[in-house]
Design goal:
Order of helices and strands of chain B: HHHHH
Largest interface: A-B, 17 and 27 residues
Radius of gyration of chain A: 15 Å
Order of helices and strands of chain A: HEHHEEEEHEEEH
CATH topology of chain B: Four Helix Bundle (Hemerythrin (Met), subunit A)
Structural class of chain B: mainly alpha
Structural class of chain A: alpha+beta
Oligomer: heterodimer
Radius of gyration of chain B: 16 Å
Largest sheet of chain B: none
Strand order of the largest sheet of chain A: 1-2-3-6-7-8
CATH class of chain A: Alpha Beta
Helix content of chain B: over 70%
Number of helices of chain B: 5
Largest sheet of chain A: 6 strands, antiparallel
Strand content of chain A: 15-25%
CATH architecture of chain B: Up-down Bundle
């Protein structure tokens, strides 16, 4: 299906039913809304070869919804301090603005808080959100520290990235 | 115990002001843990020490991962001040290990050994950062770069 952003979203493998179509449509709409955001942001769309590279590093595929979002909008710094993590760091000159997902994943693993198959893709206010990349709940979004669980990326974008938010507390 | 210094996300316009504030915040957390140890309130000491240790380790990490590389790139000084700071961070981490074992064992004397070690390093270390390293880095950045870096440090 094709949405106004030009983003093409295919339903997940084996789930070409009405529910999958509806989720895909919600994702496309959420991406379109983010793309139309009025505030300045620093993001860079992620090329296909970088997505393939990170899948090789992770040794499993990324959920298709995340690939879609990273391809369409990219990793980087969004409004209200939301950081979307991608295959590479986002830099201004020599200053790191947003870390890459493998670095964040390595840190979480070192701290002992990372289940296999979880891929960190978003941070805000000291909370990291991770997408489940395998198993029966593949596509689900969870967080460290533990918090709300979102059934899929579209719901996460609607309720977190597009939600009106309060400024982050600088005290960690 | 001193009050925790107030801050908002827009309070800081420089690396010096943000990380100087963070030094003070971490010092307040340590004093709370120290007070609790002194009064044999080890449950409170553990809670307060956890907060202090988490805050300090984060502070060391953001300096090593985000700040020092930029300082080195901009100043051209790779083996100089940042090398000394990294060496002192190693000493600080050793002191943290000692204090942690004292808190975990409910042993005030081990905690105090660690605290003495910590205090033999940290005040001078912080002073060098606040009076030399941070202001130098602030001076090496444009206004926009400084704002981006300070915002990044706060998000970490």
């Amino acid at each position: 299906m094709r949405e106004p952003t030009g983003v093409t979203v295919e339903p997940r493998d084996g789930r070409r039913d009405r529910e999958a179509d509806e989720i895909a449509l919600r994702l496309a709409r959420a991406i379109a809304t983010l793309a139309a955001g009025s505030e300045a942001r620093m993001t860079a769309p992620v090329p296909e070869h970088d997505l393939d590279r990170i899948e090789r590093a992770l040794d499993h595929p990324l959920p298709e919804e995340l690939r879609t979002m990273l391809r369409a909008l990219g990793a980087g710094l969004y409004e209200q301090g939301h950081e979307v993590l991608g295959p590479t760091r986002v830099m201004i000159h020599d200053i790191e603005i947003v870390p890459d997902m493998l670095s964040v994943r390595a840190r979480l693993a070192a701290e002992g808080g990372l289940e296999p198959g979880l891929v960190p893709f978003h941070r805000v206010g000291g909370r990291v959100h991770l997408v489940r990349a395998s198993g029966p709940r593949s596509g689900e979004v969870v967080s460290i520290p533990e918090g709300a669980i979102y059934p899929h990326l579209a719901a996460f974008i609607e309720q977190v990235l597009l939600a009106p938010s309060t400024p982050a507390d600088p005290t960690p | 115990m001193s009050a925790m210094p107030a801050a908002s996300s827009s309070s800081f316009e420089s690396v010096t002001s943000y990380l100087g504030w963070d030094h003070h915040r971490i010092g307040v957390l340590l004093r709370a843990a120290d007070d609790a140890v002194g009064e044999n309130r080890f449950a409170d000491a553990t809670r307060d020490y956890d907060r202090f240790e988490r805050g300090l380790l984060r502070h060391l990490r953001i300096e090593e991962e985000l700040l020092f590389p930029v300082f080195e790139a901009r100043s051209g000084m790779v083996g100089g001040p940042t090398s000394v700071m990294r060496d002192e961070h190693r000493l600080v981490r050793r002191a943290l290990g000692l204090m942690r074992s004292g808190v975990d064992a409910g042993d005030a004397s081990v905690f105090r050994d660690g605290l003495r070690f910590f205090q033999s390093v940290m005040p001078d270390h912080n002073a060098k950062e606040e009076h030399i390293l941070y202001p130098t880095l602030d001076g090496l950045l444009t206004g926009a770069e400084r704002a981006a870096l300070v915002a990044r440090l706060q998000r970490e």
